[in-house]
Amino acid sequence: MEPRDPNLTLALHFVETGQPQRALTHLDRANADQTDNPFFWYVRGQALYDLEEFDSAIQAVHKGLTLAPEAIFLLYQLCNCQSRQGNLAAAERTLLKALQQAPEDPELLCRYAILVSEGGQLDKAEQLVEEAARFDPEHPAIARTQATLAYLTGHDRQAAEASRRTLLSNPDDIYGQYMLGVSLAAEGRVGDADVYLRTAARLDPLNEAITSTTRHSRLIAHWLLWPLRPVQRFGPMKIWLAAIVVIFGLWELGFAKLTTTLATVYLVYCVYSWVAPPLLKWWLQRQRPGYR
Amino acid sequence: MIGDSNAKVTSDGSPKGLLSPSLQDYNAHIIASRPKPWRLSSQMYVAFFGGALAIAVIAILNSRRLPLATTKQRMTLAIGVLGFVVTLLAAYLATLLNIAPTWRPGSTGFRVLARVLAVITYLALYRAQRSGERIYTFQNQGGFASLWGPGLTAVFGLNFVQNWIILNLLPLLLP
User: Fold this and answer.
1) What is the DSSP code (8-state) at residue B135?
2) How does residue B30 score in pLDDT terms, banded at 50, 70 and 90?
């Protein structure tokens, strides 16, 4: 459905460029007959969704659905709003209504996969993505969803590979940049992760999840935390196990002084890893107002 | 409690089975009212200092705080119980077989062995709960709870209980 009123066209442009408040201003200026257009309510719902006003967004989408009860784009949007509110049961009912009309739509199947993964049903989520890939293996939503599921199941390398596939087809894919950053960070490649997370934050500055992850990434990539790179790379568990094995081993071999020195160094390192990040965050908050 | 999906693709390959609702038991209010989970990486210290029973109890409690499927919650319970049982079995066998005194319950050697078993239990519990923690952080549900209080309670309290069982109850079972 195409927008005809210039204000609706402008509102759509502002929604697409991440300016939801300006979009709402133009929607308020649109002709009164536009309220009979389901697309008007879609754009309004999207602007309110971007502003995280989910109750108002749901009301707007419902008005659109009274005009076009079967409209898949409105059902999809309603599902997004309900999911963000944590109401996964309602989101599932809404999405299944859309899937009844288009059971082979890869975008809808992938959205359902993400929804059930939020409910902890990762096996079903993987089956849904496989199903979507059977219908259209090249659909961009598939690589994006595979990246998310791989990350959620702890397969960080696979998540990074799937994110790279997403970026091959669309280098400006915000979610692809974000997922690649998150996966690389989980692999301990903090410096590389920071590059992708910064790009994602630049492309979508209003997204709180992206900006807060990017802030955290910037923090752990700070030069004062370079001594903690081994912990970030291998994880505290492996470093801790290695330290315990070496300390106990040296003790058993009779190197008492070396054991004491190593244990002291490790203890200081542990204290640094606990104290330095919150102190650095506090210092950055003081230096840069607005840093959270 | 988060329900498990029992979706299967139908024999003709259509996704109808997959498109059966499976989130209808998901109660957002109950989930939102649940206490925040503890970080999995922090639980390592509980395992090392507190032993298998301490890490099992902390992990089982944590699995109920995370968005984990029922099967994963049961798996966490099973791994925790198994880790504790293996520790008790090691103590029982060490006493029964009358091995060298440095490896008998109460000795330094046995304490090291018990810690190794606890850390192995922790690693298995970590894998069972990892997806739950990832989903939780991915949903940006608002941080983690501090493990200082419950962790120290488990380390001191449950380590005492474990040692008491090993040193006082297990000898009663010896032939």
Assistant:
1) H
2) low
Query: Would you say how long chain A is, in residues?
Result: 292
Looking at A1-10, A133-142, B159-168, which range is the least confident one? A1-10
What value does the CA radius of gyration of chain B take, rounded to a whole number of Å? 20
**Average pLDDT score over residue span A70-99:** 94
Biggest alpha carbon–alpha carbon distance for chain B: 65
The ipTM of this complex is 0.74
Q: How many CA atoms lie within 13 A of A252 on its CB side?
A: 9
For chain A, helix, strand, coil in percent to 5 are 80, 0, 20
* Cα–Cα dist A165/B3, whole Å: 32
How many angstroms away from the CA of A133 is the closest CA of chain B? 12
CA angle A216, B2, A128 (to 5 degrees): 80
The verdict on a CB contact (< 8 Å) between A86 and B31 is yes
Is B127 part of the contact surface with chain A (CB cutoff 8 Å)?
A: yes
What the block records as the tokens of B128 is 């069972």
Chain A interface test: which of B26, B68, B113, B131 (most A C-beta within 10 Å): B26
Name which of A121, A145, A153 to mutate to probe chain B: the one with the most chain B Cβ atoms within 10 A of its Cβ: A121
B78 touches chain A (CB under 8 A): no
Q: Which of B52, B61, B32 is nearest to B129 (CA)?
A: B61
Q: With beta carbons less than 8 A apart as the criterion, state whether A75 and A56 touch.
A: no
Mean pLDDT calculated for residue range A132-141:
93
Q: Is the pTM of this model over 0.90?
A: no
For residue A113, the chain B residue with the least C-alpha distance is B18
Taking only the tens place, the pLDDT of each residue in A203-244 is: 888 777 788 888 888 888 888 988 988 888 887 778 888 888
Q: Which residues of chain A neighbour B28 with C-beta distances below 8 Å?
A: 85-89
Q: What type of residue sits at position A125?
A: A
Measured between CB atoms, which of A86, A109, A153 is closest to B131? A153
